[in-house]
Design goal:
The complex is a heterodimer of chains A (335) and B (381). Chain A has 335 residues and is an alpha/beta fold. Chain A contains ten helices and 13 strands. Among the domains of chain B are: 95 residues, no CATH class; 156 residues, Rossmann fold. Chain B contains 17 helices and six strands. In chain B, the strands form two sheets. Chain B has a four-stranded parallel β-sheet with strand order 4-3-5-6, with helices on both faces. In chain B, α1 packs antiparallel against α6 and α6 runs antiparallel to α7. Classes of the chains: A alpha/beta (335), B alpha/beta (381).
């Protein structure tokens, strides 16, 4: 059986999805990245051989997420795409009439406006990470509520308190103030959910025309409190897909499928055994010119497989030299 | 700024003066500037302050800083920078170069030109402008060639080569030859079979647009993704316009401001207007998208940004606002650019599919505005 693999390596989680020929998700996995993307990719890929049906072969692989480039090199992805494209492709596949995609992840949140099955506009949080999953994580910690129960607790609230949501630092001090005043934990939790939603709609989604159907995905979609607050604020139903946590990976797999049907080429996929390979990265500052690029090189079993971060292309090929050009001025002029 | 440095260097070299070229803008420049500048001032202030410090460290005794009146805080920059630098203990003289008053600043060159008269200063100045225009033409050639280049990196190498040639050109006739050869060289670097995936116009704040080390090499990044770009601002053009030699450019500029008036009630007060007008022009000139680049906290462009979604909706062109400051990270910028290019390409594909099928025409016109479809543009269908 031909299968398509998608992997999404984000700041907080590493997700994997495997699609069959009919583009149905046959396997998915959600792991914590824990700041070690290489390790996370290996942990995600290695058990695959055991769980996929007999005779499955990966015919195309896609990578996305903030570590997409690294992940793409590790697994041998055929297509490496940004999260926004991956998320919109997955949402359109799931709900062909979708008009708005709301995605709140660990460190960033996005809105994608879709019309006629094509993304026509998008926005991502800039400068500020207020209103994302990491913030909820922290506050859950402070209240000693497990993040998994956070949403249910919010639903139990009868009168949510109002918490300043402009900035997480102020939200936190406001929250502490409300605690000290003696408000109940569930009211505070519900207030936090509302503050996060207000922050999202006021910053990321500012000026965007949010039309139903609205699809809500990303790790934070697991939180029932946020779902409720969002539905109330937008006065519309919110669709949360079954695979809300791995939609990026599903999108990457769909893009891989698209790549395969367009090119018909053979996959670069390295196989499920990459868990046993020693991967290492080295970083250096190149001093060849005044740009002083910070270069990353990826080593597989000690030999270089990829490099990036440079502007001139010197490190991007396996050979160290710049392609020869006899007229080329080697020392850049003082500009 | 690269091209400006080359031009100024050429002017002073002709006048027999020594000139200290500060090192190119780097991480160090930006962090130096950010350390001594007020927190909420815009990126160009911080970067130019860093450039000045690095120049003064190398022994410069005079600092020239661009200024203008009206429009934004730029008019206050040189006095503020002078105070900051003098407080840091540097000894120097500051010359404001007011590009709204070209005669005045040519006069400044005369004062610092070692007692040379107008007879020497004017030709030196005009030659400097020619170099500036030549370098900017090279950049245009890069922007056109990069998405079509035969092998990756070729455009960058050609640019370096011809940039050095322009820098070294001793007189106008050599410069003319260099320009002709460069045009030919760039044309040969194109692969017949490659066509750009999209055309994007870059509008917004001039400094951020012109300085690749500050805008994360925006033009190069887009070019490598296969996008042909165009920039609305060129220093050379604006100087020529200021000395009343470019009537066509002036008319275009005035037209842009007129186009923006439905969105801005007091257009004379705001350079952001120009960005709006230029976005509308981009629709007429068949661009697929617009990037609005600006320093974070830039007053005029923030005004433009706030009405941009309406402009985008009314005229059916995607616009990506790109605010940048010293805290911006390259990953975030790349993700936004990639997603924007994907969005444009997918939109184009859908439009051409619909045009071919001849269905949903009314549908797409409503959703995508008035831009012509790809097939129409290609003359097919």
């Amino acid at each position: 059986m031909d299968v398509f693999l998608g992997i999404d390596v984000g700041s907080v989680s590493t997700n994997l999805a495997v699609l069959n020929d009919n583009l149905e998700v046959i396997y998915d996995k959600y792991l914590r990245t824990s700041g070690r993307p290489i390790d996370a990719v290996q942990r995600a890929i290695s058990p695959l051989a055991g769980v996929l049906p007999q005779g499955s072969g990966v015919v195309a692989a896609g990578a996305t997420g903030s570590a997409r480039r690294l992940a793409g090199e590790l697994v041998g992805a055929d297509i490496v795409k940004n999260e926004i494209t991956a998320h919109s492709v997955a949402a359109i596949h799931l709900a062909p009439d979708v008009h708005t995609v709301i995605e709140i992840g660990g460190q960033d949140s996005k809105i994608i406006i879709i019309r006629n099955q094509v993304a026509v506009d998008f926005a991502m949080n800039t400068i500020c990470a207020a209103g994302t999953g990491s913030f909820l994580d922290q506050q859950a910690n402070r209240l000693t509520v497990p993040i998994e129960e956070f949403g249910e607790l919010a639903l139990a609230s009868e009168s949510p308190v109002r918490i300043a949501g402009r900035c997480t630092v102020f939200a936190e001090s406001d929250m502490i103030h409300k605690q000290q005043m003696g408000h109940r934990v569930e009211d505070i939790v519900a207030g936090l959910c509302q503050a996060l939603v207000r922050n999202y709609l006021g910053n990321v989604a500012k000026g965007k025309e949010i039309l139903p159907p609205v699809v809500f995905q990303g790790g934070v979609a697991a939180n029932a409190g946020i779902r409720k607050a969002l539905a109330e604020e937008l006065r519309t139903d919110i669709i949360v897909p079954d695979k809300f946590g791995v939609m990026g990976a599903v999108g990457a797999a769909l893009l891989a499928h698209e790549w395969r049907s367009e090119t018909g080429a053979r996959s670069r996929f390295r196989g499920f055994a990459i868990g046993d390979v020693a991967y290492r990265t080295t970083s250096l500052q190149c001093n060849e010119c005044p740009n002083l690029c910070e270069v990353i090189e990826v080593l597989m079993n000690g030999s270089k497989i990829a490099g990036w971060g440079d502007r001139c292309g010197r490190y991007q090929t396996e050979k160290k030299e710049v392609p020869a050009c006899e007229e080329c001025v080697t020392t850049p002029s003082s500009s | 700024m690269g091209p400006l440095t080359v031009a100024i260097k050429s002017i002073f070299r002709r006048l027999g003066q020594e000139i200290v070229v500060p090192p190119p803008t780097s991480h160090r420049t930006i962090s130096l500037g950010a350390r001594y500048a007020p927190e909420l001032v815009c990126m160009p202030f911080k970067v130019t302050l860093g450039n000045m410090i690095e120049g003064l460290e190398r022994g410069a005794d005079t600092v020239a800083m661009a200024t203008s009146h009206g429009n934004c805080r730029l008019g206050f920059y040189w006095p503020a920078q002078e105070i900051i630098l003098k407080d840091l203990g540097f000894q120097f003289e500051m010359i404001p170069i007011n590009y709204d008053r070209p005669l005045e600043f040519v006069g400044e060159f005369r004062r610092f030109g070692g007692g040379k008269g107008w007879k020497d200063v004017l030709p030196a100045f005009m030659f400097g402008i020619r170099k500036l225009l030549a370098l900017e033409e090279l950049e245009v050639l890069c922007m056109e060639t990069r998405p079509r280049e035969r092998e990756s990196g070729l455009t960058t190498r050609l640019f370096r080569k011809w940039q050095a040639a322009v820098d070294n050109a001793p007189d106008s006739s050599t410069l003319k030859q260099v320009r002709q050869q460069a045009r030919k060289g760039f044309l040969e670097a194109r692969a017949e079979s490659r066509e750009p995936v999209a055309r994007i116009r870059i509008v917004g704040e001039a400094y951020m647009m012109a300085e690749p080390n500050v805008n994360f090499h925006l033009q190069q990044k887009l070019g490598d993704m296969g996008v042909e770009t165009e920039r609305s601002y060129w220093l050379g053009k604006s100087v020529v316009r200021a000395i009343r030699l470019d009537r066509k450019g002036r008319r275009e500029h005035e037209k842009a401001i007129r186009d923006a008036t439905p969105y801005m009630r007091y257009p004379d007060l705001c350079t952001g207007c120009q960005s709006i007008g230029e976005t509308i022009q981009a629709v007429r000139r068949n661009f697929d998208g617009v990037i609005l680049i600006m320093p974070f906290t830039c007053m005029p462009e923030v005004l433009a940004q706030s009405v941009m979604h309406r402009v985008s909706e009314d005229h059916g062109i995607p616009v990506l606002p790109l605010p940048i400051d010293e805290h911006s990270d390259e990953g975030g910028i790349s993700t936004r650019l990639e997603a924007f290019v994907d969005l444009i390409v997918r939109r184009k594909q859908l439009k051409s599919r619909e045009a071919l099928a001849g269905t949903g025409a009314a549908h797409s016109a409503r959703a995508f505005g008035r831009g012509p479809t790809t097939t129409e543009r290609l003359g097919a269908g």
